[in-house]
Amino acid sequence: MRLLKTSLALAILAASATSFATESFNAKSLAMSGSGLAVSDFSYGTALNPALGSNYDASDDFNLNLNIGAIGSDPDELVDQADAIVDLIDRLDGQTIDTQQEIDLIKQLDQQLTDMSGDTMFVDAGLSVEFAIPNKYVATNLFIRGNAALTLTPEYESLDSEAIDRIVQNNGQFSEDDLDSRMIATGAAIAEIGLNFATKFKVGTQVISVGIAPKYQTVETIIYNESINNFDEDDFDADQYTAEDSNFNLDLGIQTAYKRWNFGAVLKNAIESEYEVVGDKPVTIEPQLSLGVGYKNSWAQLSLDVDATAAQDFSSRQDVQFARFGLELDAFNFLQIRGGYRHDLEGTYDDTVSVGLGLSPFDVFNIDLAVVAGDNDTLGGAVQIGFGF
Fold first, then answer.
1. Fewer CB within 10 Å: C terminus or N terminus of the chain?
2. Residue 37 sits in a domain of what CATH number?
3. From which residue to which does the signal peptide run (predicted)?
């Protein structure tokens, strides 16, 4: 029952919580704030829209790319605060508080517990491997993707201050069991492996691309709920705090173009699925529809994507719904400069801006970097290394 209570408390406190459907850490896409579901090419676009597997040039044969990235925010150094409090508790545990030095230490403990109230940190990290085989019949991509997201927040109990005051007034003995404040971490680690199939066909004179990405998902949810004196970040993935579940799912996409304008739509996680959570009712992940428009010529690409429906944030149980804008400038297919902006229409996340740089000499090798920044000391980045054949 207490676990359910603290989970609901987290829903109120976690203003910068991490989404169950975590960010894509493909460096090309992240540099444009995750936009591009209507206009990205086959090498990285299928993570945004399965139909983009057929968006390739006649000279493209194969592409392999590796991606890794992370984004996080810990403006109050919450983990360091918690570690310092644990050290102070260990120092005072079992001591009779009858000297000025011990009184100062236990008052310091009380102040640190109070100061930590309301602080929140989050981290979201991911990696992926994408192998693309363009084909005029059915373009195919093999993908392996993994993301882990975690939010950490304290649940401060005012009774701790009252207990400390009584110990000081009575020169009593302090025990770590006198404290009721807790540390709570919630998150999920998501692994996907699947195949992406895309093809083109004509309706009159209009070329339409469609795609489907069947995938096997394994989701490990984390709800760490421990007293402050027993806090240890190394225990976040211990068995008593985690639950693992697996499901088959798929993404569906469509894309078309008119002159230099491109239009796309994607339905992510088209099959509604439930995932078990420690000490709580299962979380239901519903399909999410996103729409995009883009403009592309030989040296520039513009993209605007909007989530048509909101998705529930796992940690806070609040809705998130993103609008994303991205820009890419390409110099001679050798140097790419990118930028982007992301806004949460539901207001759960702060706005972020992104920039990136890519090098693709001779179109056989590429390295791409992305940096993301936002309010509350939010900072992240990603890197991609790719090979074309």
1. N
2. 2.40.160.40
3. 1-21
